[in-house]
Amino acid sequence: MSGFGAYEIELQSLLAGDLASTDPTKFASETQTLLEQLKLESRNSEDRKATTAKYKQLKADVDRKVLLGGGVPQGAQANQARARLMQTNDKLENQNDKIKNIQNTVAEIEDVGGEITTQLKANREVIQKQQDRVKEVSSMADMAGKITKRMSKWWA
Hints:
This protein is mostly helical and 156 residues long. The protein has helices spanning 3-16, 24-44, 48-69, 76-155. The protein has a domain at 1-72.
């Protein structure tokens, strides 16, 4: 039996096992090591094309096993995972509520700011009109003062 065949049998026996009862880190490490050996053996094989294709198929099987069949918590682990998921969902909902409240507050602040800006504009217009009136009255007072001086020269 070639080295490729021995590694292939060992990898298939790992894949046939129950991943839920094994340590996922150990499983990943062992399969990665075997896949590396298979890759080396496929390069050195006489029928390189067939062994490379077989290697790629085994790698896909390992990936599928890890993604679909592995890491599914059982019993207490499932309950813990479910509890963590519920806590995370609750935290996310709370954060979403806080964000919505903040957005509402910001919208209210923007509305108040707009109202203040409008009021300031109206106040500025009133002040400008009053300044214009003061200038007008001041110029009238200056003119009245000049007229009074001229009149006082007549009577003096």
